[in-house]
Every structure is written in structure tokens, then in C-alpha cells.
């Protein structure tokens, strides 16, 4: 299984699969886009590639250097792909909600996951602070609520897009780093992937806590 993922990670198809999953994740929050990004990074980091084999012809040192450079280039490409898809999905949801208005507001109300996210995050998502957009990218369904909410509230592109871009880059870099270092330290295995996914969910829980914290202080 991991060998197949490693082979997929060295082809353009991995970027297609990751991009589609991330774009659709804003509309279907149950899609495991973060898990997919981590799995791709773990498989790429823990599996030898053709670049490493070619470099090995010139000696161990050359093989390590070439392979390391190929790994970093692949991780950078994966971060760029994931961040771009994240922003694209945000903007599509934002534009649709801008035009749909009340319909999307009602759609959020019909989704148990989105409604739960709204209740869990309280009024944090409506205060308009840019940092909320970044934190919400890690919170379960927070990205969907923020993107749709920004559109329904008719916030300007200049208010929303820069923070969406920062959120996408931060989330993508964190997710890929988890997969990469997990694959480097523990190899391409389910253990490294499970630990990385746990760290991703831990970041989501921390984001929810930070977003709700001001509400607790206000209540006192």
C-alpha cells in the first residue's frame, strides 16, 4: 500500500487528487483532505525515488544530497498545490455565498456539521478579525463556516482574500511538514501517518479553544 502511495506521490496525479479533495472540502467538510495531504507527504518522504537511485551512482554522499533536494522540491510543490487549492475553494464558496445570500445561510443551518461548528465557535467567526480566518482553517468545518459566512456578510475581497491565502499556506505547510518529518523519522508506515494525523487534529482542537477563549472572558 505504502509503495503504491510512494509511486503516486512521484506523479502529477497526486496533485490532482489533493487539489480536488481540498477544493471540495469547503463544501463537503467530511472529506479528509488534511489526512490525504499528510499521507502523500509521508509516502513521498519515506519512499526512495528515482532521483535518489540516480544520485547513488555517484556515491552515498551524492545520493543523499540529490535525494534530499528532490524531497524538498516535492514537499514545496505539495505545499504550493495544497495552499492554492485551499484558496481556490475558499473563493468559490465565498462568491457563491455572496450571490446566494440567505440560501447559503439556510444551507449552513441544514448541515449538522456546519451548525455544530457555528455553535462551537460562537461569535468568534462574526467578529471580522483576520486571524480568525487562519485559526478557522484548522478547526473542524471552520473553513466552510468562515468562507460561506464572509460571502453571506458581503465582506470585500480585499478583506477576505489575503487572510484566506495566509490560512491556506499555514495549513498546507503544517500538514506537509507533519507528513514529511513523520516519514523521515518513522518511515512510510501507518504509525507515522497516524501520529501526524493526530497532531493535525490536535492543532484543530487548539484552534477551537483559542477562538472560543475571548467569549469566555466576555462572559465573565
Secondary structure topology:
Blueprint (H helix, E strand, L loop, with lengths): L1 H8 L3 H13 L7 H14 L3 H7 L3 H41 L1 H9 L1 H10 L8 H9 L3 H11 L4 H30 L3 H30 L1
What's the number of extended β-strand segments?
0
Relative helix content = over 70%
Give the overall average pLDDT.
75
Distance between the termini: 52 Å
The proportion of residues in beta strands is under 5%
Tell me about the largest β-sheet: none
Q: Name the overall outline.
A: globular
Structural class: mainly alpha
| String of helices and strands | HHHHHHHHHHH
Uncertain ranges: 48-66, 215-220
| Number of helical stretches of at least 4 residues | 11
Write down the Rg: 19 Å
Describe it.
This protein has 220 residues and is mainly α. The protein is built from eleven helices and no strands. The longest helix has 41 residues, at 60-100. The protein is globular, with a radius of gyration of 19 Å. Residues 48-66 and 215-220 have low confidence and may be disordered.
Amino acid at each position: 500500500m505504502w509503495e503504491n502511495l510512494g509511486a503516486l506521490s512521484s506523479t502529477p496525479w497526486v496533485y490532482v487528487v489533493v487539489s480536488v479533495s481540498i477544493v471540495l472540502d469547503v463544501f463537503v467538510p467530511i472529506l479528509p483532505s488534511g489526512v490525504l495531504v499528510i499521507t502523500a507527504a509521508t509516502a513521498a518522504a519515506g519512499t526512495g525515488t528515482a532521483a535518489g537511485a540516480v544520485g547513488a551512482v555517484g556515491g552515498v554522499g551524492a545520493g543523499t544530497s540529490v535525494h534530499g533536494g528532490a524531497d524538498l522540491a516535492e514537499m514545496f510543490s505539495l505545499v504550493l498545490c495544497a495552499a492554492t487549492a485551499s484558496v481556490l475553494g475558499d473563493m468559490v464558496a465565498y462568491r457563491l455565498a455572496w450571490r446566494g445570500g440567505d440560501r447559503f445561510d439556510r444551507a449552513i443551518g441544514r448541515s449538522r456539521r456546519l451548525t455544530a461548528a457555528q455553535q462551537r465557535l460562537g461569535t468568534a467567526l462574526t467578529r471580522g478579525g483576520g486571524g480568525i480566518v487562519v485559526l478557522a482553517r484548522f478547526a473542524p468545518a471552520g473553513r466552510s463556516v468562515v468562507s460561506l459566512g464572509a460571502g453571506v456578510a458581503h465582506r470585500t475581497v480585499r478583506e477576505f482574500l489575503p487572510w484566506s491565502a495566509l490560512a491556506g499556506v499555514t495549513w498546507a505547510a503544517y500538514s506537509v511538514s507533519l507528513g514529511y518529518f513523520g516519514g523521515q523519522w518513522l518511515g512510510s508506515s501507518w504509525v507515522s501517518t497516524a501520529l501526524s494525523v493526530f497532531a493535525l487534529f490536535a492543532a484543530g482542537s487548539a484552534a477551537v479553544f483559542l477562538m472560543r477563549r475571548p467569549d469566555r472572558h466576555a462572559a465573565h
